[in-house]
Amino acid sequence: MKLLVAAHASELVAFEDDIPGFERLLTGVGKIPAAFALTRALSTGTYDEIVVVGTAGAIDDAVEGGIYDLAAAIQHDVKGLDGTFGEHVSLPARVETGHDGLVIATGDHFVDDADTVRRIRELGASLVDMESYALIWVAQQFDVPIRILRAVSDRAQDGATELWDDVVERCSHDLRAEIRARYGV
To answer: Could you read off the pLDDT of 2-34 as tens digits, one per residue?
Structure first.
């Protein structure tokens, strides 16, 4: 059994309630709700793979619209004890999925301005979101493979918040087609 995970109900509008071989988990938005929900699910169920779907903002000009597999995640809203941006005081700076793909920067705020994008891009990320780092970290604690598929919803620049509301349904349909193609369901 696989666990299909999304943060926001809008990201699942194109997905049927019952997909053969998958159970469904809606975590809520942000690192803490995502970590809590996935920890709870993995504590009570057994899964062969976690498959996360959702949206992300693109911060690399080379990244166009589409769906991207994630290779790793970093955090963009933390600082180390020495003040180093992107480093947490006790968590790894980077967590890996084990798949080829892009690096995403996770933080607990919606990135929608050029100055923040510039700072995050310097950390080596191509995308931004609010859950991937936490989900990968939790999956590693339970030793469950994880795949994260992110559909680009915006350019993470001024006005991105309003744009997300308009495109999330299209992203959900694109993600549903990707799951159908990859998993045959």
So the answer is: 999 999 999 999 999 999 999 999 999 999 999
Q: In terms of pTM, does the model score above 0.85?
A: yes
Question: pLDDT tens digits, residue range 103-114?
Answer: 999 998 877 778
Partnered with residue 153 across adjacent β-strands are none
Half-sphere exposure of 23 (CA within 13 A, CB side): 15
Please identify which residue in the block is written with the tokens 């469950």: 144
How far is residue 3's CA from residue 42's CA, in Å, rounded to a whole number?
9
Nearest partner of 27 among 62, 56, 3, 61, judged by Cα: 3
Cross-strand bridge partners of residue 128: 57, 105
CA distances (Å), origin 165, targets 10, 16, 79, 110, 161: 9, 21, 30, 12, 7
Tokens 């194109």 appear where? Answer: 14
Contact of 23 with 45, CB cutoff 8 Å: yes
